[in-house]
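Internal tracking record. Fields below are filled automatically when a chain is submitted to the structure queue. Please do not edit lines marked as system-generated. If the sequence contains nonstandard residues, flag them in the REMARKS field before resubmitting.
Queue: standard
Priority: normal
Entity type: single polypeptide chain
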Amino acid sequence: MPSVYIKTYGCQMNERDSEAVAAQLVAKGYTLAVSEHAADVVLLNTCSVRDNAEQTALGKMQAIAGDLRRSRPDVVLGFMGCMAQSRGRELVDRLPDVDLVLGTQKFHRAADYLDDLLSGRREKVVDVEAEPGSESAIREHVLNGRGGRAVTAFVSIMQGCNQHCTFCIVPFTRGPERSRTIPDIVSECRQLAEQGVREVTLLGQIVTSYGRRERPIQEGKSGFVQLLEAVQAIEGLERIRFTSPHPKGYGDDLVEAYKRLPKLVESAHLPVQSGSNRVLKLMHRGYTRERFLEIISKLRAVRPNMGLTTDIIVGFPGETEADFEETLALCREVEFDNAFLFKYSPRKDTPAAAMSDQVPIEVIEERHARILSVINEVGARRYAALISRRMQILVEGPSKKNAARMMGRTRCNRIVVFDGADRHRGQLMDVQIVKSGLFTLYADPAIVNLPGSGTSVHDEPFVPCGPAHRP
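SYSTEM-GENERATED OUTPUT FOLLOWS
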């Protein structure tokens, strides 16, 4: 049977889509190749959020085509995902070696289309049409990863976005919001738990918009909170995460859920994008700086040790030095554990691309360096404050950077590396933090309360996610 190599660019939604395609192909008898050089099919799952992501994928495909077509002319090359959706047939016209262009609502068609291409029934396939029900077609998982059985999994609960931020192309590449049913999602999560998964991350373009049109508010609880309650009840699951939300989705019912649902971990990725009300209005974000800070205050009131990360765009059109200083001040005030920083990139057909006062690239670069320094400074201080603390982790598997060591994640989403063994995979265990690095913690194996080790640190104060926020 043929082998397939899938390279993924972009967000966790893209990771999940790639995994589902891989699982569908494996079910049809395909094998997963470790690189494009060993594959009969090479698929690039693409991102359109920034121009750099598109150019990287285009450059990669050009390199693959130039390399592989000479030695293996029958290899099948394809684009999937957001860039495939936005550019469609243009990709085949620009790169004639490309055989398949698969849009964001067509991932479940990959196996059939590849069968047609490999058998010679079709020469090219370009399918970027909308398909009703496609949001429920991404269910399959590949649970053998990183040298063993996966104990965490992404679960897509919805597709699309109705927010239409002025900088974002996602509503055009992913379409309008479409939510799966709660029973369907719970069934998938239950199957994962039965296969040894201990933690699920619920995914959506704006995950807190789940069921907004399909599921009415019940007893003051939004459809998303109702879903969290249903997943909470699944036996075998230990932790629930979700991403990416929108600040507008953080009603009091969701804030209260952090206190009420023990499996909902105290971790929130809350994209602020800017600390300036003027820029937030230009972005069409729908909240103010004051409202964002109010949400943070409420979250820390119910979970003092809440882990907080964010997204920030640097150099949005018209951003002044004063606007940027407001963003810096907000970062210092909130003290995010980490932040994903994006240099503004004009996207075709978005309102921001046509705005006047585009910020010069040299200004964007300088501001990016300044805010990165602040984020790293704050993060280093918060991570260093955890040294000597005992924290609970879920052991996920070998460290990505050093396969000889194991890694786990705290409830508030901090990575912890320690000397352990594969038998600890999937365990919830307490570790003692002995060192901090750049957004990584290290635990001393001598004081890990491993089963049968005879050592315990339960006489020390237990801090699930480290120090509370200090003003």
